[in-house]
Amino acid sequence: MLGDDVHRLFMQLTGLGKAVNLKKLMQAPFTLYEGMVERIRREAEHARAGKRALIRLKMNSLVEPNIIADLYQASCAGVKIELIVRGVCCLRPGVKGVSDNIHVRSVMGRFLEHTRVFYFLNGGQDELYCSSADWMPRNFFRRVESCFPVEDRQLKRRIIRETFTTYLRDNSQAWVLRPTKKYKRLKPSAKAKRRAAQEILLEMFS
Predict the structure, then answer these.
(1) C-alpha dist (Å) from residue 14 to 1, 8, 35, 106
(2) Is 112 within a domain?
(3) What are phi and psi of 64, to 5 degrees?
């Protein structure tokens, strides 16, 4: 089914026909924006119903104003939102009554990364997507972009671990965005440095 969607997408790109209906893929400029908004609002509904609600997003840029407004509303509803935005981020986290439940960090590593990964807890029926699109007006509305679900449980766990767990634990190359719109670089404590050195030694001699 996913392969059929990819085939249809490339047929659309090389032909002159109208937008095609895809079963699993979301694509810009047709269904990606609405699909992301729907999932953000669904997470907010779970929070209002007293369920645990979580959104984790990794991308290079977060600019689109309407989807930022939806993230603010989800935060106000009680959704925990963890964002890893490498570059431009127009959202202000930690503003009382607006974005109390939103945390934003930028991790600046050795390499220019382009991974875009979107995670929604969805009441325990979690959904994970990988995409070519940053959350910017040009990506949502003026480009052809794709977004596909990761359904294999083992692959999903690996992507969550490598994309979110590791990056959210980083304390040496991470910059945390404050409500003042300024970034503060995290620095490992002496205890954390010792623990990291011990873990490296264990890996070397185990």
Answers:
(1) 20, 10, 24, 37
(2) yes
(3) -60, 120
Identify the pLDDT of residue 189: 75
Q: Which CATH number do you get for residue 67?
A: 3.30.870.10
pLDDT tens sequence across 148-167: 999 999 999 999 999 999 99
What is the residue range of 88's domain? 26-205
Domain presence at residue 34: yes
pTM of the model: 0.88
